[in-house]
Inverse folding.
């Protein structure tokens, strides 16, 4: 069944009509959705609404809600990523949505390569990944901050996936919230490395692989934590 | 240090000269390598050779080996993948090299989307991923075969990453060779699913994530097995 993202509340009722316009309507028109077709509406806040299309006009698509299902947030994994190049960062956003990462912290560091700010393009990219992966939760995208500030503010366990060999085991149970920390393409500087390693919330994990590009590192790290939790 | 792939034997000696020509030489010329520059030569068979560039001509680059280091194959993870679209398959090849997957089995299945055959483009893609990731081993790329034939021929443990909820735990120790099996974008057919699940070598793993594109599934699955082995 085709899916669409709409900004509706979890409290939307069966029988309610929902209007989709702008880019989202355009996208559905391009794939030629038809009146009476069934469609899955995702609100990125935990609900999936099964709907039928009750009207298709040039500018709008109207859905009628048939049934709905709410699911509590399942993932306890968040991602702090020192910004790689723009393309790689956009790949990472898509991958993070597919993997159900619940919050993303874009970090600046000495060797980070990109200044991030939230814009329409990023919003559309997250929405499209949400729809493709049938993820029920749109991840929260934090404002860019420095690695140093992030380490000061954060109180949760951090799993730092380091390219260097390291043997510190995860100190925390993997039941609670955990933040994956991944460096930029050139790695963190020596000064940053010590800042990270000396932080009491940090466990260092070395994946026994060749050098990973940042998007591959994100997916492998989430997989690693899921495997570790078994 | 810049790296280059060359088809030389592990027995290549210190002081030996190695000639690089064709596409590989062209690539080094594009990035303007210079005489006396240090370079890392990888042979994809476990050796890294530290070398200096002793000559740069229009068509050739000559390296002189300074030292070498051999490492035994570390990864016991292989990948059997029902062929997705060509672009996704090429992404998977890159990701598999980064992650150090030692062998790749391209499988045809009812919903697979692409006919694979080894060609120069695939070879160059593997080489370039090898150089970028400093992987010491070029993965073996098996010929395409059907899922059915693969299941009949194979005697190793298989970790089937299924989109459906499933609770069968890995029966084997993760010390020995293990093959990750991943379906095509549309999943396996019902008939194929039972063929897989009934196979005595198969353990079924469900990653608790939204729907993954095949390349993301590959990276997350390798990460999962690495985490599980901890």
């Amino acid at each position: 069944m085709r899916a669409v993202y709409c900004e509706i509340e979890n409290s939307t009722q069966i029988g309610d009509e929902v209007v989709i316009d702008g880019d989202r309507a355009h996208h559905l028109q391009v794939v030629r959705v038809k009146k009476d077709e069934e469609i899955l509406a995702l609100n990125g806040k935990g609900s999936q609404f099964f709907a039928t299309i009750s009207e298709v006009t040039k500018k709008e698509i109207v859905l009628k809600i048939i049934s709905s299902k709410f699911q509590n947030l399942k993932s306890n994994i968040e991602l702090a990523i020192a910004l790689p190049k723009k393309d790689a960062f956009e790949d990472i956003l898509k991958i993070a949505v597919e993997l159900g990462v619940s919050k993303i912290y874009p970090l600046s560091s000495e060797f980070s390569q990109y200044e991030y700010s939230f814009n329409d393009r990023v919003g559309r990219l997250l929405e499209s990944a949400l729809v493709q992966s049938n993820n029920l939760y749109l991840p929260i995208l934090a404002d860019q901050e420095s690695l140093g500030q992030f380490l000061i503010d954060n109180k949760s366990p951090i799993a730092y996936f380091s390219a260097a060999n390291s043997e510190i085991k995860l100190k925390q149970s993997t039941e609670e919230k955990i933040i994956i920390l991944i460096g930029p393409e050139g790695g963190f500087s020596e000064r940053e490395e010590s800042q990270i390693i000396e932080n009491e919330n940090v466990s260092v994990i070395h994946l026994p692989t060749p050098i990973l590009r940042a998007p591959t590192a994100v997916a492998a790290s989430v997989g690693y934590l899921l495997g570790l939790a078994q």
